[in-house]
Amino acid sequence: MPARRKPDARHDTKATMRLGLNIGYSGAAIRSVLPLVEHADRIGIDSVWVAEAYGSDAVTVLSYLAARTERIKLGSAILQMPARTPANTAMTAMTLDALSGGRLLLGLGLSGPQVVEGWHGVPYGKPLGRTREYVEIVRAAIARQAPLEHDGAHYQIPYRGDDATGLGKPLRSILHPLRDRIPIYLAAIGPRNVALTAEIADGWLPILYSPERETVFNEALHEGLAAAGRDPADLDVAATVHVAAGEDIAACRDQLRPFFALYIGGMGARGRNFYHRLACRYGFEAAADRVQDAYLDGRKDEAAAAVPDELVDELALVGPVGRIVDRLAAWKSSRVGTVILGTHQPEVLEPLQDAL
């Protein structure tokens, strides 16, 4: 395992770190988390993020939160691109942005082959090319500078396939957007996807992020930023960090181990699990293999137990609130601009907000 590095001190030019709140797949349980979101809104937490996979969707939840909050930004983490045409995503984004008074942060991602093909029933295809075109179309539709047209390898607008009626014509949104550019955040882990994100997105949504080992992303980030002639400060790195607060550190780690086991061990097929690959790139190859082997064999408890303490401590905020606040220093020294807290514990929000 490579030695742990101190967070890179070269990120002194980044803006003051912001705190976000991730409430996950909470559509069916929104009333139980609504008090937490309203509390975050009152105390000045910067953003709240809603997830979707193959159940509760993010748009419905964000619409509900838009009506129940006043200041907090509303982020999708993430809207699945294969589930929606780019134009539909642009319509959704413009509508949510208007309803919320300009508070939307549009998080997009491809998800994985198992969900894309197994749930949405569409081909996973070539993710890099599809993502680039998708973002171009969404931005063009929102900007509304001209009727929407796109002729790419993955999308043709108007559609011109062999089965087209020939009646399609370029259209311009009948909704005048509140903002002609809504921030787009992309979820990415693999080097090529991270490079593309650094090139074209306003923000990056990494998960399982270690501030001590963030140098594994440097080459990809620098490649993407250089391709677009961008400054690192132009890209908001918004990392989701799970939180388990309590006096018993071991018990707090145990609360989060099943989550890490799910992602490292079960979120994708063997050989196509991006999170397993990331744990290996961090230097935890042997542990990652043990977690994956146990999880895919159905031994989920054993998989959770195989997640190392060190990995939990690097990727999450665990233990007494004072320890969590102290640990925030590593994130403040990293390239991360927004720490999105994965928590349902309101008692951690104000201490962490004060620590910034």
Verbal overview:
The protein has an eight-stranded parallel beta barrel with strand order 1-2-3-5-8-9-10-12, surrounded by six helices. The chain has a two-stranded antiparallel ribbon with strand order 6-7. It is globular and about 65 Å long. The chain has two domains: 18-246 and 328-355, Alpha-Beta Barrel (TIM Barrel); 249-319, no CATH class. 43% of the residues lie in helices and 14% in strands. Helix 3 links the parallel strand 4 (79-80) and strand 5 (104-109). With 356 residues, it is an alpha/beta fold.
Largest sheet: 8 strands, parallel, barrel
- The helix/strand order is EHEHEEHEHHEEEHEHEHHHHHEHEH
Proportion of residues in extended strands: 5-15%
Distance between the termini: 32 Å
